[in-house]
Amino acid sequence: MRGYSCVNRRLGRWVVSLPPTLFLLLFFVAPSLIMVVASFRFPGEYGGLAPLVEHGRWKLTLETYRFFFSDFIYAEIFIKSFGVALATTLICILMAYPLAWLIARSPKKHQDVMVLLAVLPFASNFLIRVYAWMIILGPQAAVARAVNSLLAAFGFEPVTLLFSPFAVLVGMVYVHLPFMILPLYTNLAKHDPALLDAAQDLGANAWRRFWKVTWPLSLPGIYSGSVLVFIPVLGMFAIPDILGGTGDILIGNLIKEQFLGTRDWPFGATLSLMLTLAVLVCAGLAAWLARRGVGRHA
Amino acid sequence: MRFLALLLLWVSPALHAADVLHLYNWNNYISDATVARFEHECRCKLVQDYYSDNEEMLAKLAAGAAGYDLIVPTGNAVESLIKSRQLRPLDKRLLPNLKNIAPAYLDTGFDPGNRYSVPYAYTITLIGYNAEKLRELNLPTDTWAVILEPKYLAKLKGRVTVLDSQRELMAAALKYLGYSANDTDEAHWRRARDLIIRAKPYWAAFNASSYIKELTVGNIWLAHGYSSDMFQAQQDARQAGRPFTIAYSTPKEGAVLALDSMVIHKSGPRPDLAHQFINFMLEGRNSAELTNLIGSGNPNRAALNYIDPAIAANQAVFPSPDILRRLEMLRDLDRTQRRVLSRTWTEIKVR
Amino acid sequence: MRKNPVWLWAAALAAYAFLYLPLLIVVLYSFNDSRLNAEWVGFTLHWYTELINDTNMLVAARNSLLIAVAASLAATVLGTLAGLAIYRYKLRILPILAVTPVAMPEILLGVSLLLFFNLVFRPWLGLELGMWSVIVAHITFCIGFVTIVVRVSLLGMDESIFEAARDLGATPWQTFRLVTFPLILPAVMAGALMSFALSLDDFVITFFTAGVGVSTLPLQIYSMIKIAVTPEVNAVSTLLMLLTLGMIVLASRIHGKAIQSTGV
Hints:
The complex is a heterotrimer.
Chain A: H1 2-38, E1 53-54, E2 57-58, H2 63-70, H3 72-105, H4 108-119, H5 126-137, H6 142-153, H7 165-189, H8 193-201, H9 206-235, H10 238-243, H11 251-260, H12 265-297
Antiparallel strand pairs in A: 1-2
Chain B: H1 2-15, E1 20-26, H2 32-42, E2 45-51, H3 54-62, E3 70-71, H4 75-83, E4 117-130, H5 131-136, H6 145-148, H7 150-153, E5 160-162, H8 166-176, H9 186-199, E6 205-206, H10 211-217, E7 222-226, H11 227-239, E8 246-249, E9 255-264, H12 271-281, H13 284-294, H14 309-312, H15 321-326, E10 327-328, H16 335-350
Parallel strand pairs in B: 1-2, 1-3, 5-6, 5-7, 9-10
Antiparallel strand pairs in B: 3-9, 4-7, 4-8, 4-9
Helix pairs in contact in B: 8-9, 9-16, 10-11
Chain C: H1 6-29, H2 46-53, H3 55-89, H4 93-103, H5 106-125, H6 131-155, H7 160-167, H8 172-201, H9 204-209, H10 217-227, H11 232-261
Helix pairs in contact in C: 1-11, 2-11, 3-6, 3-8, 3-10, 4-6, 6-8, 7-8, 8-11
């Protein structure tokens, strides 16, 4: 019986773990490797990629990387995308914190409903939420007219709200806010109210109680939320496409354009690889910070 | 359950395969009446997919889009498709109506002998504008300067759109500077780029398709676009009873003539239906229908009898020899040039 | 509980308003009797009727549903297997493989799959892009979600119940069939529903991997937004919102039961 179950356990291990592993190796790892190799290949004369082996020789090149580093403009777009991602994350933290805190401090029976309400907009298609802002920020809509009449009263030039960096930022924040609310709430809900009571008894005012007790304890929640916002924003192209103006392209738009515009696949692959590296660096940084933070305040 | 889903997947597309012609065409580039008449004649169904830029179509094909029988690319895209061996040669025996095409539009540089393509329609990339507003602001309407020079743009701030197309916008700037639209000298490209960057702050947006609506509604007063789209805007504005009219004209420095041709893609399953469609569209009456609908230029001599005289007299649709001399067709670029252009375009977008 | 300060209420309500105002406007304007989405003119159901007559939209909806059903089924099966394997056998590579597609920007996954399908599937297998390529792509990023949900559910369980089954003479397969699976079923269902909702809504990955003539609802909406922004977009958005809302509520109900059931 023992021996049988040992063999069975071996078999069981393969039967269970093999299908998903094979699927992911084939459709996730292989494509990623192909992308890495593609960044070293020549572009095809009319689009796509040139053959990997021609006349029996490998046709690989560093030309694409040289092209990437030869002009600062690409680094500039990366920096700009990082800036947008950072701004989005910070604004999300600012907007999500009060809401998450309120929900965490509410009676247990209300919390579920309040969380569901906060996450419900996520139930709608992401493009629809972006499109909603096209309506709200449009030049003939109430918001734009109100803002512009206010500006006119002070003698300023009218501004266009739509098709501007402002619109892109609003769109990014709007789409990612639920991703910040949830981790923050999950964290804040676990705080022991006794700690705050103790702090108050020791004479701390509201601000000190928040800054010295609540905030440090909520840091892991902030880190998870930030990762869930920062990384997706880096790769977004639909929002700048729809809400952005003449200058608001981000790294996602550039990558998309290489594949579906210029037909320069090696360069698109190079950009994607650079983006992957950037994401890995950020994720690593976040993990390191989180470990440090938790270590100090555990 | 999974089997059922898989079965459904396999079955449903197959149900539609019988007698269907797949056409990959520009937005708004064929009239519904023509489609209906063709479907009636061939007893088949015409399914359309759309694109708004040649580059988009070429990129989709390079990325593996297949199953299109017919495509309607512009000259430089035809060139690219021929060189990359994606097209099926035409069987001229099935195209008796080919004789209707004016010789001036046959045997072009990108397809000598018309082995792969047949002219469909042509448009000129020019400027369309709100006639009243521009007159009021005392602005010229016959030059590219009005979208490229700050001294004119200052009066139009936020009311101008340009095409979101690398080739078209650079061509306009190059023509304005006195170069050929097919110039590949990087120094000239840099001058064109700087010109565009200087004008960019005054533009509202890069826009490839919704500028028709924007002009009609009155949000935009000046747009860089295709002559057929401008014609549409003109009609729409008149029909909506707007207090202004849309007019359009070819700039005196010259412009791009886009000759769109019908080609048969190698991967299309129904070349027989495709030939039928091409011959159908070469008939004078059918060809004229497009012109009357969208105001596109028509290379078909037999169509002249059916075209609305007002359109036939329009210089921007049927240019006089004088204007024709200043028009150029775009040629395809090689991969090094494409990469340089792509970087130039990125600079234009970012700076 | 201590009373919440006024400013906290104000800030929280402002956040709620920010979240809901755009959606309310979309829903409201779907009944607007005007082609332009600018001002309110009058009430009409015209756009909904136009939606029902719009064949492109209906085909896109059919495609979206087919893809979502196929992808969520496959992802649920594979993800459950992965969750079980990670929990039981303490694997190290599979967790990374499963979760990374979830954590990376979608455009990277879309682009690498596009390259893969073009360089491997087309030349070697002669297969063109189509609906299947979208389904495969969706499965790839949905597996991770199911894996996480199933694993969390397993972690919350009391190990002793599995030991008890073994002591009573059950083979591993019997243990799975009679003990494990019924216990993780709520988590599996929640994962399936989440995969369905994610697949239905996906835009970026579908954008790169869809073949000719394969339009899904998000792709259709995107092309409508870029070209002709009539209130028909609002109508389809409203309906989509209701559908996805229903799925998420259902998923959370079942997941709630899953969490409860782990305290057996």
